Every structure is written in structure tokens, then in C-alpha cells.
Amino acid sequence: MESYFEFFYSSPNFEEIDAKSIRYITDKIIRKSDAALAVVLGGDTQTFEMKMEKWDELTHKLSSISGIIFLLAHTSSNKEVYNQANQSIQVLQRYGNGLSLNEELYKSLKKYSQSDDARWLKGYKKKFIKETIREFERNGFALVQQDRDTLRNIKDQLSDLANEFSRNIAEHQDQIIISEKDIEGLPEDYKNRHKMEDGMYKITLDSPSYRPFMRYAKNEKWRKELYIKYLNKGNPKNTDILIKTIALRNQMANLLGYKTYAQYVIEERMAKTPNTVWNFEEELTNKVKPKAEKDYKELLSITEGKNELKSWETGFYNNILLEKNYNLNAEEVKQYFELNNIFKGIFKICKDLFGIDFVKMYHHSVWHEDVIVYEVRKKHSVIGKMYLDLYPRANKYSHAACFGLVSGRETPRGYQTPHTALVCNFPPSTPNSPSLLSHEQVTTVFHEFGHGLHQLLTKSPLAAFAGTSVVRDFVEVPSQLFENWAWDYDILKEFALHHKTEEVLPKELFDKMIAARNVGSGLFTLQQILYGTYDLTLHDKYNPLTDESPNELFNRLQRQITLTAPVEGTDFPSAFGHLMGYAAGYYGYLWAKVYAEDMFSVFEKEGLLNPKVGKKYVDKVLSKGGSEEEMSQIKNFLGREPKQEAFLKSLGL
Ligand SMILES: [Zn+2]
Questions:
Q1: Which family, according to the similarity comment (predicted)?
Q2: Beta 401-406 vs 419-423: how paired, if at all?
Q3: How far apart are CA 394 and CA 392, in angstroms?
């Protein structure tokens, strides 16, 4: 790891990494950062290069080492490496927190920001200094010492409360025990996995147990029972924690000069003000409702006689609807999506659209034998590296995500190329079958690959703005945009080949997939709007000490926004883990999707493989990262103001 440390063009030699070398490298990067910090602080030369670029260089080196260690903390199969990486990540996070609270550093950069040199800065340089100072001040540096101590204290309490909230959800265990006749509807392999010695079945609240049961179990009484238990995760402990959290977040925002916590959070996002988000949610509710009402009627029509649907019934009837009226067999679709073919297909799209090649690197150092490495080239020059770690293993991160390892950055020795890793959990091949993906998993691949492209195609001079270093309500634009390529027949027919016969995905089957695509899309979107509105209300228009309880508030909004009534005996807010992580930011996913669909309409019109549009997308958006306001990037690409039409159309409206 020593040579890697000096310069990141190379990659670490993963085979040589053990617990000891991780400890060593953690200590070393901290010592090096301290030395680099002295350079930023010292020196009388007040230039962007001496101050801001040095600061960017320091954080880039720190995050490049952290990136590798973070990856190992989520993927290593070596117990010692895994444990040490997890410890080191905490050490590095604490070190990073220390930097963001370093008063001497703040004063030094602030002084520079007020200098003559800084006053004439333009473009990304101006943006960088402005945002750096703002970040320090959002951490409390504009406050008097006493208030700063209070703020620190609030932050400590908040992070403890957030951990406790999540732990209460994760550790909450409950189940139903049912007999053979009550498990009717579930597939055999599910039954085998849940059968106990006495012949009864134990169904728990874990996803692989809960979700299929809600979808397939014919017994309505047990579905209801399990649903209520599921929506009591974290209850009753989390209600108090939530109330305390909201109160402290309010207090923190007030201390920093904001009216509400939402204002504090959204100020630095694309939306800028809570009001913009309120309007967004409201307008969308009105537009989506007709589709949701149509969905609801369609669901009712197959229930044979019901005139109302309860929350524990929608998943079940949705599944029947897909089978009966849309005749779509997910297993049949899977046969056309062999994992290697999917990646070949994506590489081909990237070649046509962006003129880049993914060249497989043999004998390249990796952290596990399953991992494959590609060098990314454009006209023979190397522009980045992508690792694929696609199959599940013990201790591995259990969802799908794109991990940034090294970000792009301009250096005196040339451009530091970005390195990225897709970490997923797709079914591995077996002696009888290659790795086959459901179409939902195929769109996941495209989604994560969209994040990967954002990182790989960056040209940002500063690491602070490279790749996915953009505001949170924009970061899901490139990923959701790229999902659309997985829904186009001309694209799919290039690589969706039956794994045995090599027959192309039949058009009739594809048409069925398209017909089923928007089944329930209105109901689903309303549910997302409910979550977003609830999160926003808690952080913008709610006083936990005097208003209704968090659960009463949720139930009221549910009645107002969605078509299904709240269920007696549930406490959704206690189980809603995202309230901690997103905190007034849940709206971001839908918000980004509206822009993603709008931008996709340009490709739809001019060609999904049109290199001109591809180039424009790279030039105006992907290459920029955060070096330009995200809204300007969107407008520059569209050549007009953004609109909602394409998004509504994508829902089937
Ligand atoms: Zn994403």
C-alpha cells in the first residue's frame, strides 16, 4: 500500500493488505494530513493555489485512503481485515470531524475568503470558497463560544439518539407461528426455509421472510397480523427518541439562525427553500392522484366484491393482478437476463453513447476472487477504473451500491483518474444455471452504473466537486436517468438473449413487461409523497411538545394524501429508519426523478444511442460534478426550463 499512498494512479495491492498495514496506513495518513494542514495554515501567500487547492489536496488524499478502507469494512472476507477496517473508519471519521471543527483552519480560510485575491475568483473556484466557508459556519463557527458549546452538545445527543433509533428497529424481533394450512400460497422453497421441527412455520419481520408472505399468503388474518407487527418495529421506545430528536434539531436550527431544521437542510440543496419542496409535493399529489385512483379501482376489480382495500391487502392483490390480467411470468423474463450479457450490453451502450471502452484487466489485484476489474478508456487514454463485486458473501454489504474509491482531481502530474466499485448481491451461477437476474435487478444494475458513470466521467479540477460530490437532491438524477435504458426494446434486444437458446427477448414478452410496468405506479408514488411530506412536516411545521403525536400526525397525512386508511394498532414513525438519515431530505428521490425523466425525454427524442446527445450529457452534466450549480447543469442540457410532463408520462399518466 506504500506506493499507492504516494500517488493513486496505481491501485492498492489488496493481497498485501492485512490488519497491521491498515493500522499503519491509518496512522500515516493522519500524520500526513496534519503536516498538510500546517501548510494550509502557514505561509503568507494568500492565493487560491496555496490555500484552497492545498486544502482540497489534503481532503482528497484523506478520502482516497478512507475510500479503500471503507470498501474493505464492507466487503472483506478476512475477519481481521474486516474488523480493523471498521475500527479505522471510525478513527478517520473522528479525524475528519475534528477538521471540520478546527477553528484555526476556519479563521485562516475565512481570512483568505475576504482577501483581494479571493474577491476576483470566478466559477468553480468562487463556488468552492463560498461553500467551504458556509460549511464551517453551518458547523457553528459564526457563533459565540457559549452557543458553539451548546451546538456541540446537541450534535452529540443527536448522533446518540439516531444510533439508538436505528438499533431499536434492527434489534426488534417479532414473529407469527402458523400451521400448514395458513401458509397456503407460499412457494415450496420458502416453506422449507421457515418450517420448524414441530411442523409449524415461523414467519419473522426480516425482509426475505416478511415480503413474500405479504405478497403470496392467502390467509388474510395472518397477513394483517404480520403487517401490524411490522409497523410496530421500534415501538414503543422510538416515539420518545423521535420527539427528542425533532426538538433538538429545531433547537439546533434556531441556534444557527434558521427558522426550522428543514430550512437549514434545504438551504444548500437544489430546492433551496422548504417552500419549494412544499409546492413540489402538493402539485405532484394532485397530478398523481387520478392515476392512483385508477390503480385502486383496478385492484378492487380483482377482489371479487370488496369495496375497500386495507394496507395489508395491496401487495397481495397487486400480485394477483399482474398474474391474472397481465399474464407476466417473472421467471420466464429472467431466462433472458444473464448477468455477463447485461454488462456486455451496458459496455456497448457506453461505447456508442460516450465513446468509452471498458477493457477487462486480468491479473489485477482485487479484494476477493469474485471481483473483476475494468480499465475505462477514451480514445486509448485511460480515464478511470471500475471494480465489479457482484455476488453475496458472509459479512458483505447486503444491498447494491456504487462505492467511490478515488475521485478525479487535477494535479501537477496530470489528471488523477477516478476509481469506482459496484458492490451488489446478485445470485451467483450454479452448476445448472448461469447468474440470471429479474428485470428489477437489471434496472438496479443500470441505476448503480449510472452513479458509476457520474464518477468516471468527471473532469472536475477539484476533488471536492468530482463525480457524485453534488447536492443530495441531485445525486439520484444520473442513476435514475440511466434506468430508462433497461426499458427500451431496441436496447434490450442487443443483449437480452435466452441463456440456453440465445433467442432474443420476444417482443410479446417485452410488451407484457411494459404493460405491467405502471401497474400501481400511482399508488406507489402517492406513498412516496406521503413519506416525503411527513418528513418535511416534522422538520418544518411541527412542534413535538405541543402538537399531536408523531403517529397521529402520520395517520392524518396518510388520510389526506393516500387512498388507504391508517391501520389501528400500528406506529409507522417508530419503524421509519430514514427519518434519521434523511432528515428533511426524503423528498430528494422523487425530486431527482422528475429531472431525470425530463432529461431522458431528450434522449428519447434524439436517440438513446445518439453520440451527440451523449456528448452533451457528459459536457453539461456528468463531467461537472458539483463545480457548477446543479440546476444550471440541467437547464444547460435541456436548453430550456425543466418540466414535469415526462415524469408524469413515465407513471403512465
Ligand atoms: Zn442511487
A1: Belongs to the peptidase M3 family.
A2: antiparallel
A3: 7
Residues bordering ligand 1, an ion, CB closer than 5 Å: 479
Q: Measured over all CA atoms, what is the biggest interatomic distance in the chain, rounded to whole angstroms?
A: 81
Q: Distance, CA 578 to ligand 1 centroid (Å)?
A: 15
614 Cα–ligand 1 center, Å: 20
For ligand 1, the distance from its centroid to the CA atom of residue 10, given in whole angstroms, is 27
**Distance (Å, rounded) from C-alpha 140 to C-alpha 136?**
7
Residues marked active site are found at 448
The domain total for the chain is 4
Determine the distance separating the centroid of ligand 1 and the alpha carbon of 446, expressed in angstroms.
10
- Is the pLDDT at 265 greater than 90? The verdict is yes
Is 278 found in the same domain as 247? Answer: yes
Torsion of CA 561, 516, 448, 503, to 10 degrees: 180
Helical (H) or strand (E) element with 165: helix 145-171
Q: What is the pLDDT of residues 439-494, one digit of tens each?
A: 999 999 999 999 999 999 999 999 999 999 999 999 999 999 999 999 999 999 99
Count CB atoms within 10 A of the CB of residue 170: 11
Q: What is the pLDDT of residues 47-86, one digit of tens each?
A: 999 999 999 999 999 999 999 999 999 999 999 999 999 9
In a domain, 582, yes or no: yes
406 shares its domain with 530:
no
Q: What's the pLDDT at 275?
A: 98
Q: What is the pLDDT of residues 595-630, one digit of tens each?
A: 999 999 999 999 999 999 999 999 999 999 999 999
- Reduced to 3 states, what is the DSSP secondary structure of residue 383? strand
Alpha carbons 233 and 429: distance in angstroms, whole number: 35
Task: Take residue 509 and report the three cell numbers written for it.
Answer: 414478452
79 Cα to the center of ligand 1, angstroms? 29
356 has which bridge partners? Answer: 378
Q: How far is the CA of 166 from the centre of ligand 1 (A)?
A: 21
**365 and 392, same domain (yes or no):** yes
Type of residue at 328: L
Looking at the structure, do residues 73 and 37 belong to the same domain, yes or no?
yes
- 586 - beta bridge partners? none
CATH number at residue 484: 1.10.1370.40
Note the ipTM here: 1.00
Going from the Cα of 279 to the center of ligand 1, the distance in angstroms, rounded, reads 24
Between CA 643 and CA 601 the distance in angstroms is 10
Domain coverage including residue 276: 237-326+520-586
Distance between CA atoms of 121 and 107, rounded to whole angstroms? 19
C-alpha of residue 192 to centroid of ligand 1, in Å: 34
Domain end (from 140, 165, 187) = 140
